[in-house]
Amino acid sequence: DAGITQSPRHKVTETGTPVTLRCHQTENHRYMYWYRQDPGHGLRLIHYSYGVKDTDKGEVSDGYSVSRSKTEDFLLTLESATSSQTSVYFCAISGADNEQFFGPGTRLTVL
Amino acid sequence: EDQVTQSPEALRLQEGESSSLNCSYTVSGLRGLFWYRQDPGKGPEFLFTLYSAGEEKEKERLKATLTKKESFLHITAPKPEDSATYLCADTNRDDKIIFGKGTRLHILP
Known about the structure:
The structure holds two protein chains of two kinds. Chain A is about 0% helix and about 60% strand. By secondary structure, chain A is mainly β. The radius of gyration of chain A is 13 Å and the shape is globular. Chain A starts with a strand and ends with a strand. By secondary structure, chain B is mainly β. Helices cover about 0% and strands about 55% of the residues of chain B. Chain B has strands at about 5, 10-15, 20-25, 35-40, 45-50, 55-60, 60-65, 70-75, 85-90, 95-100, 105-109. The chains are: A mainly beta, B mainly beta.
């Protein structure tokens, strides 16, 4: 158990509303990641963080922003949710050899 | 474009029937080739990291091997509890991990 929690675990929202997903780790790891997983696409990196207030874009960052004000928390925000952002979102941290440990996921539905 | 391709997409085996899953990657530099297992409704679970051609790692009925352009996950005498989606991942030229789409493995009792 890598000590990663995500909240909420499930969320249904409407198009155009803001949504924030939270990832919390208890391992004091420097690197944290947000992925989305969709059928036919696999896991795709949205944003990642390499320290407090240090973040960078991944493969599918459009429409998403992130913040990291504390080592243990990494927030993913959808400023104005769209139906194409319906997905399962996973947070991950990196281990010592670059292997990743994932949270349980958040299932987001945008109507 | 850096890619990780897994085959087959899905595989059904009888309990005890050994087989192999394939992962091919295009990145020229190798900073780690990773295998994960994912059960329905859960996050991926780390299995192995391989760094150099010829390297092998084992865990219970699973053995991962690596060549210059491919990795194989060999499953020996599988049991129904080995049913899952197996994901392969590599590190691209920007040092970011990219995942294949996975192989859905179903072991029939």
